[in-house]
Amino acid sequence: MSDNAASTTKEFTEEVAPRTTTLRNKLGYAIGDVGNNFLFDMGQLYLLKYFTDVLQLPAALAGTVFLVAKVWDAFMDMSVGTWIDNRQNIGPRGKYRPFILWAAIPLALLLIANFSVPDFSVTGKMIWAYISYMIFGTVYSISNVPFGSMIPTMTRNSQERSELASFRQAGSNLGLMLATIGFMPIVNMLPTDHEGYTVAVIGFAVVGVACQWISYFNIKEVYKEAPKPKATKEDLKKSFKALLKNRPLVTLCIVNLFTFSAFNLKLAVQVYYCEYILKDNTAVSYLGFFSIGMVFVAVALVPLLTKRFDKKTVYSMGCVIWATADILGFFFASNTVLLVIFTSIAYLGNGFTSALNWALVSDCVEYGEWQSGIRSEGMVYSAFTYFRKLSQAIAGFVPGIILTWVGYVPNQQQTATALLGIRGLMFFYSAAMAIMTVIIMHYLYPLTEKRYHEVLVQLLKRRDKDAVVEATTVKD
């Protein structure tokens, strides 16, 4: 980008998209995702191992819980997004913030229920697991879809959105780091694993609620819109058709199906990798501290990189780093130190993509409104999270099937085939998904910074014109 172009872009940004968030708002948004992760990551990190090694459920059956529940969650995200977009009674707390406040305690109680399965038969345990995890996912949608939909209402400034997305990712990874470091030591302190899992989850659930409430009191919706007229079936059809025509959104959804399934699958499998390949359960805590800690480096670098390069370029750059580290890890991560080194580099690359997702999906909101005339933050965000939930279904289902296929037996010495299957799940799957993401982003994602600015200028001019017409009509 030339100096003149950069100067023009800066002037444009300051004129039509001024900065509207404070450091307090950004920190509040970050703390909200610490809470989200305390309440959510327990399932992604430890629930599969709780099912297989504590409840003694067959791995393939345990994996189906994730498949069914996450597909259900994906549809719930779309339903919640549609409902939120079409709410009529919006109070002084705002359109999105109240959900963060009221959903926190039910979400915590349901999380505890997931790790407190009674001593039923296998069938009874499976029924409990299905029901509790599906209800948990529904309530999480009610909390998380509004939380993620807030960025377009907090600022229109593209750079500030990148900063908010980075703060959110920092909060997310702080929550993930603390959950990875602190959970298993608590479990190991208790007389039995069953008691340990329950007590650890209760502790993280309580702190998660506190973090969400802190977030509620420190973020605000700057750009508030009047409630929309009650949507008809025809309006909803138009909105869904507009989503399908939103090329940046569709592309972003597809690549998140790849990257997020890889990320979550790695989180689920690393517990098995440390126990059965490295024979070092404490390695999970080291991974949490060093490798997830590297994501903070990525979060700090993203705002600097996006000042020089398009977000699309930085996104692909992260995937290249990620894929390279995981390929090397498959061949060389034979001890705890090497595992931490290669996984840390992979998470650095992943941090670029994770930090930018929320900024990119906010850009898709404006693009969709410019393209179709329909603005729907909730539906855009829920469409995005729909694919992320599908990716979580893959991340929970695939390990269960592969572990069964390679002959995994809980709490026993594993065969060479089983160990190879665990290594492949840990490294090759995520490397392949990262490479696919680079290819798809390069060829299909159309929003460069220049193009986004053009879209936003035209959109704001259209809004001003519509406002003048409406005012004239009212006057007449």
Gist of the model:
This protein is mainly alpha-helical and about 475 residues long.
How confident overall, as mean pLDDT?
Answer: 83
Query: What is the CATH third-level topology name?
Result: Growth Hormone, Chain: A
* Percent of residues in helices: over 70%
Number of domains: 1
What is the terminal-to-terminal distance? Answer: 48 Å
**Overall form:** globular
Alpha-carbon Rg, integer: 22 Å
> Which CATH first-tier class would you pick?
Mainly Alpha
Give the topology string: H per helix, E per strand.
HHHHHHHHHHHHHHHHH
Beta-strand share of residues? under 5%
Descriptive terms for the model:
Growth Hormone, Chain: A; globular; single chain; mainly alpha; 476 residues
Molecular structure report:
With 476 residues, the chain is an all-alpha fold. The protein has one domain (23-475): Up-down Bundle (Growth Hormone, Chain: A). It contains 17 helices and no strands. The chain has helices at residues 3-16, 23-54, 59-85, 97-102, 104-114, 122-149, 151-154, 158-189, 193-216, 233-245, 247-277, 283-306, 311-332, 336-372, 377-405, 416-444, 449-475. Helix 2 (23-54) packs antiparallel against helix 9 (193-216) and helix 13 (311-332) packs antiparallel against helix 16 (416-444). The protein is globular and about 70 Å long. It comes from Levilactobacillus suantsaiihabitans. This is MFS transporter. GO terms for molecular function: symporter activity. InterPro entries: MFS_2, MFS_trans_sf, Na/Gal_symport.
